[in-house]
Design goal:
Blueprint lengths: L1 H8 L2 H35 L2 E4 L2 E5 L3 H8 L1 H32 L6 H9 L6 H11 L6 H8 L14 H9 L4 H12 L3 H6 L1
Antiparallel strand pairs: 1-2
């Protein structure tokens, strides 16, 4: 109520500017409600029901969660997902920070190196997935061809329980260029006097 009163007391040009601002963010807000908040609320509601597309949902209470807790595959999926997250995220952050430190140096062709490290983030997901499938292909993949040159039989990278998770973690490091750019911007904002003082 107080905000509405403040809005009414604003001078005309400021009020018009505020309305224009809200109109500019309206498509984003509608998208947020339709594609993020709406599905979250619907999923929360449907998690307490027995739902099939062809009939109306019937309320089941906590039975779905009870089945989930007693499902052995749920705990395995949770363990694998946790390993993936707690490995790939820190590795990605450390690697992107290390690359940003290297890119913060004054060396020749630094613009080229920054571009080379950032380009993989611009590659569409489907194209990069096809590239990784080729690299990890057990028969004619790049990685197994390199291993064959030194006399090592390459494994089924994505088809073996031992190698699938490390392969996916390696694939997640493909896009370290985006956080590297953020770190680099932060590092370049630090005055050189501070480096000299240290």
């Amino acid at each position: 109520m107080q905000k509405l009163t403040l809005f009414r007391r604003m001078p005309g040009h400021l009020r018009r500017e505020a309305i224009e601002g809200y109109l500019f963010i309206m498509p984003w807000l509608l998208g947020l409600i339709a594609f993020v908040i709406g599905p979250i609320v619907a999923s929360f509601y449907l998690s307490f029901t027995d739902y099939e597309i062809v009939r109306a949902p019937t309320f089941t209470g906590l039975r779905n969660f009870e089945q989930l807790i007693n499902d052995r595959l749920f705990w395995q999926a949770l363990r694998v997902s946790s390993i993936y997250v707690f490995t790939s995220v820190p590795l990605g952050l450390v690697l992107s920070f290390a690359v940003a430190l290297l890119m913060n140096q004054n060396v020749r062709f630094i613009g080229l190196w920054r571009t080379v490290y950032y380009i993989p983030t611009l590659v569409p997901v489907i194209a990069s997935t096809m590239l990784w499938l080729w690299i990890f292909n057990p028969e004619f993949g790049l990685l197994n061809m390199i291993l064959a040159q030194v006399g090592i039989d390459g494994p089924l990278w994505l088809g073996h329980s031992r190698w699938a998770l490390p392969s996916l973690i390696l694939m997640s490091l493909w896009t370290v260029g985006a956080p590297m750019l953020i770190y680099l911007a932060g590092l370049q904002g630090i005055p050189t006097d501070l480096y000299e003082a240290a």
